[in-house]
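Following up on my earlier thread - several people asked me to post the actual chain instead of describing it. Fair enough. Here it is, all 262 residues.
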Amino acid sequence: MTMPRIASLVPSLTELLFMLGLGPLVVARTGFCIHPAEGVRGVPKVGGTKDVNLERLAELAPTHVLVNVDENRRETVQALRAWPAATRPVVLVTHPCTPEDNLALITQVADAFAAVPGVAAKAATLQGELAAELVETRAARAGLVAQRVLYLIWREPWMTVARDTYIARMLESVGWQTLPAVDGGESGAARYPILSGDEPWLAQVQQVLLSSEPYRFGEQHVDEAQRLCPNARVRLVDGERLSWYGARTAAGLRYLRVLAAS
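Reply from S.P.:
Thanks for posting it. Predicted structure:
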């Protein structure tokens, strides 16, 4: 059997590939694909999620390229599909929008590489763990107080998440409703609204969550966020646990339950 050569242009998917035992077959990643640290250290980088170096990627001759609707540009996918037939890779397009969607995501990736020994068993283990955490989270939600939350991912300007993003739906699993009360659509900038800072609804926010990524919020930003939402509790949160999907979702749900109960 000719083994696949896999390029991952999505950090969460790179981690998932390694968790499925496919790490030795990963021949390219983005600079944001940092987990697992030991595993990815020797994998060549091909730029970022939004600015993929297609020439470098072609040199690495992948048979499969993993992308995501939110994290990669449509133009990148179109360019990959326009490669000559002899070198054109299979492009796996992913788009998990809820924690539950990760069950199908794991199946999608595992099925693509089902011929590789051990992948199916590892996928089943991951799905079993996630299914158990989803049940625990649904049960825990009944005992939690609903909260109006502002989840900040950037400053200067302030940026947050629309309600139909993966992050917002993770938060919704413990009864936290994100503000503003808007959907952003399947893709595009509207999924991550920019705030002017004088929106009337900011006074209704009960908790401000300052993510550790993509902007690295720290203690020095707490007072600034407090001024933005004077009636809210401001907290620093682990953005990787709340926004990375795939292999990290089960741990993310455990983290979120603790966060919501404290």
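The first helix runs from residue 11 to 19. That should answer part of your original question.
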